[in-house]
């Protein structure tokens, strides 16, 4: 128990340290961008006096190190600052957008994760036969095509030509009933599912096939168990650790990587909010969104490490 607790504390501490390092990169990266924030806010016709006053008001004249610690300290207390272009509180705006992004990612995961595991099990059951080859071909084709291209193709075929679903998610309203919201995001969910399905399916297939080479699987075969029972009751439980890792990585992508999908489908989420303010050079918003995306990604990876440690006793004794 002591060794397990030590490993868990190490993983959590490593995750927090990594998040701190990422915060440094986010702050430094946004501050070394070319151009002048004050100039972009006031426009080209601004006087030097107005620019100097705005820089002083925004704290741009202070040393970068003091500005970083002020920003980090405020972020730790939940104060993400105020948007330069709109004057609105960033934390309030992000709380609305983050809920929309999580709603989209949640339903995409609800569809993608069980489907990927089922297809992985099916591919193992019919290994090197036509179902396995068909599943591999379709999933590899989906992961090879950029998600924005898949999105535009579905918009044109399903939304415009056939008229089965809304071509964009601009009509999405958080206060609508569940069926209406799901109908509005059906196409974005389909694209996200196709994008993450291949990686999870192939990892499930590879992990189970690796376990199938074990001696206890041969014993189960000699006892007369069917291949389906061997896979489901013996191979799959022992292949959970790598499957959980890849599922968590793809869940992190669903939350962080929805930026392109939200822009393509005009979905009012974090990605759309970030892109809108990148074009306006609104650094506080970009920094806040970057920090939240990094926290989600690192947090889900940390959970994957913890689940792997708990499910695989060999990881508790690396020697």
Account of the 3D structure:
The chain is globular, with a radius of gyration of 24 Å. It starts with a helix and ends in an 8-residue tail after the last helix. The mean pLDDT is 78. The protein is built from 15 helices and no strands. It has 319 residues and is an all-alpha fold. 76% of the residues lie in helices and 0% in strands. It has a domain at 99-279: MetI-like fold (Orthogonal Bundle), CATH 1.10.3720.10.
Concise overview:
This protein has 319 residues and is mainly α.
The CATH superfamily of the domain at 99-279 turns out to be: MetI-like
Give the uncertain stretches in residue-range form.
none
Mean pLDDT: 78
Largest sheet descriptor: none
Number of strands: 0
**Radius of gyration of CA atoms, rounded to a whole number:** 24 Å
CATH topology of the domain at 99-279: MetI-like fold
How large a portion of the residues is in β-strands, by DSSP E?
Answer: under 5%
Distance between the termini: 17 Å
Output the structural class.
mainly alpha
What would you say the CATH architecture of the domain at 99-279 is? Answer: Orthogonal Bundle
Order of helices and strands: HHHHHHHHHHHHHHH
Rough shape? globular
Give the helix tally. Answer: 15
Q: What level of helicity do the residues show? A: over 70%
> Given this structure, which CATH class of the domain at 99-279 is correct?
Mainly Alpha
